[in-house]
Amino acid sequence: MLTLTPSQVRLGRSAANKAEAIRMVGQVMVESGFIAPGYIDSMLKREQVSATYLGHGIAIPHGLPEARDHVRQTGVVVVQFPAGVPWSPEGSARIVVGIAAKSDEHLQVLANLTGVLGDETQSEALAHTRDPAVIVQALNGAAAAPEPQASVVTFDGPHLQVTSPSPHGLHARPATVLVEVIRRFRADVTVHHEGRQANARSLLSLLQLGARAGTALTLTATGDDANAVLDALRDAFQSGLGEGEAVAPTASAAPMAATVTLDYEGTLVAGLSASPGIAAGPVWAFQRERLEVEEHAPDSAQEHRRLEESLAGAAAELRQLHEGFLQKAGAQRAAIFKAHLELLDDPEMLSETHGHIDTGMSAGASWRRVFESRADSLARLAEPTLAARAADLRDVGRRVLRPLAKVVEGEATFPDHPVVLLAEDLAPSDTAKLDPAMVLGLCTVGGGTTSHTAIIARSLDLPAVVAVGPSLLDLRNGQHCILDGDAGVLVVGPSERDRAKAANQRERTQARREEEKLERYRPAITLDGKRVEVAANISEAAEAQKAVDAGGEGVGLMRTEFLFLKRDNPPDEEEQFHAYRTMVRALNGLPLILRTLDIGGDKHVPYLSLPAEENPFLGVRGIRLCFEREDLFRTQLRAILRASKEGPVRIMYPMVAMPEELAKARAITESVRLEVGADPVEVGIMIEVPSAVMMADRLARDVSFFSIGTNDLTQYVLAMDREHPVLAPQADGLHPAVLRMVDLTVRAARKAGIWVGACGGIAGDPSGAVVLSGLGVTELSVAIPSIPSVKALLRGLSMADAEAVAREALDSGNAAEVRALVRGLLAKKGTKA
């Protein structure tokens, strides 16, 4: 083990500035045989790219990674500057620890430093001691003390002797409970542990104690209710500070599974099933963005306000996350969000951040400096469970930082082998960055069953689990896991039995899919003779042939806006015509539904010059944009109608909210049709907004069909953005409120004698396919890989059973109850979704 010796310590030095101090430290490292002189320049360069000041007068200058060739031997030296050297806006350094690292042997010294960080008295002693042995003892692991007797501490006032809780010591969850207890009282409480002290109102201060399970703690209190708070703390410690065995998620955490068996031996991380299937392999974190902040801001008062607003927003998100996970996965798993809330309210962090703002720093730069320095300190703790909480702090830090920063997208990188991809969430633009050959499955912190991640996963035929929570990003790249998209869980540290089970399940799934593939051209006719058409959702011309090959009975939704994205100019009429004609020919007589341009302020299209909108989902999008840019609308209609001369094409208008919009769209279409000389084509509308549902009887008079866009309809009915980091898991298209809108739409369509399709995410969800069919939806348009399985599912059921479940679903209280109804039906029929 690496140890510091007195010969590597220099006391009583002075320096005019940081650069001079670093050169002095570097010279001691050269004299000790640790580095070549060239390494000193790299130590100076390091100061330009990252902070090396830890706090309480301690700095740790070291070189950049590319300078490791100059490291002759791993080692550390210490130079004492009693008068201090200005090091950063955070303070002056009096103890400077120079580090030369070829391996990780120096990490224990850094871990010992974290104890000094939390103890101002001890760091003061190190800064003024005249005995090198005191510094050597502190950095080699012994408590620094000017006198041997200092390790024996007596407490005269109110105090309490307790033991750090099992099994992992005073980590985030029990420390959170401790802080919550103390907040009910006025007294100040200090926790003493092996010569170090922590402010018991500060979660970070408690974590930095590094108190392992079973170690002795002394709690002292001062104030009017000192004895009362200690009595409450005694009870809290006796009850274990909320510690207990982790509970595996229940079947309700897996809404899309027909039957769920969670007999894994590894650690289960509960989420929501977004795409079925199972994958096993190393995990890899998908990184696509960085947060940039301005270092300085002219108006400190405004920066203080910005920080408070961002903290309040993050706190609201975390409270909702806690409530959601409390219901879904129990108190044990939800407790991490309570710990995150305490980190947001940490008095020492807030005080330091506001202090930086007072010096002229921006809110973003101030907050980033504070949370990153604290996270670095936590990461250096010797106890792995406590060190892992650095990831929690970074997650909280980024949650607050995001509104204060500019978000910059970068290029994603992938390893050279297939991985289970981990991400906060995936946007449509991320699809192009994914290499399907390198992705075994998707698992995200946020999102819901209708989120972009779910859509991407189903379109790529990948298993996916969403809404797992921020602990997901604690996993190391390369760590082996099992992703169970049927059960909606990620299995961390799977046993050999778990791996064998996963392999067996994959083989069964593959065999079932092969059987479904052989039967893919058979129509979806239920056991009692009712037919449901199963078509494809596509986004580009080449996918039309893939839809046919998968057994699709046409294209129920072609998202034409993908022709308009990621380019500097809109596609002209000829380009669009060739794309649409390619699809018509590939379908060879099967119907093609082309949705006209559906772009709004939520998508960046430079040539449209769309103004930024406070709420783009309630702004100029869909058919409203077509009216704003009638030139683009007419050009697209000309291309569509020309292509209709070669096969059955249907036109579908998006985001129609009222009859006058439909009338205007039809008038423009008829005008263009006469110009082109095409025959009349069937026209339909998307049912995506509540007003269209409520006006469905009027709208049905002027169209040939309705297609329900369940993704948008869900977010408008439930007032929940399906990409919202907190609410997305609740934005489930099988919520009874959404299903009642579907029921109203079908009733209005039947009265008018037109048919109803569905092209949102739940159409391809096994539970959704059953309920929508039972409500009278006669066409389901799904992701191409889902076509064979949806057809097979419907062939194994009677429409009478589907209708019975649908009626019960309309009277259910929430989406989970609806999914449970379908699971019960499929289990009774012996059908595997």
Topology (elements, then pairings):
Blueprint: E1 9-10, H1 18-31, H2 38-49, E2 53-55, E3 58-59, E4 75-88, E5 91-100, H3 107-117, H4 120-128, H5 132-140, E6 159-163, H6 172-182, E7 188-193, E8 196-199, H7 203-207, E9 216-222, H8 226-238, E10 267-270, E11 272-275, E12 278-285, E13 289-292, H9 300-329, H10 331-344, H11 347-358, H12 363-379, H13 384-387, H14 389-401, E14 406-409, E15 419-423, E16 439-444, H15 452-460, E17 464-466, E18 480-484, E19 489-492, H16 496-518, E20 524-525, E21 531-538, H17 543-549, E22 555-559, H18 573-587, E23 592-595, H19 623-628, H20 630-643, E24 649-653, H21 659-676, E25 682-687, H22 690-694, H23 696-699, E26 705-708, H24 710-718, H25 736-752, E27 755-758, H26 766-774, E28 779-783, H27 787-795, H28 799-810, H29 815-829
Parallel strand pairs: 1-4, 3-5, 12-15, 15-16, 16-17, 21-22, 21-28, 22-23, 23-24, 24-25, 25-26, 26-27, 27-28
Antiparallel strand pairs: 2-3, 4-5, 6-9, 7-8, 7-9, 10-19, 11-17, 12-18, 13-14, 18-19, 20-21
Helix pairs in contact: 1-2, 6-8, 6-10, 9-10, 9-14, 10-14, 11-12, 12-14, 17-18, 18-20, 20-21, 26-28, 26-29, 28-29
Could you please describe the fold and organization of this structure?
A hairpin with a 5-residue loop joins strand 20 and strand 21. This protein has 833 residues and is α/β, with parallel strands linked by helices. Mean pLDDT is 82; it is low at 142-152 and 244-261. Helix 11 (347-358) crosses helix 12 (363-379) and helix 26 crosses helix 29 (815-829). It starts with 8 loop residues before the first strand and ends with a helix. The chain contains 29 helices and 28 strands.
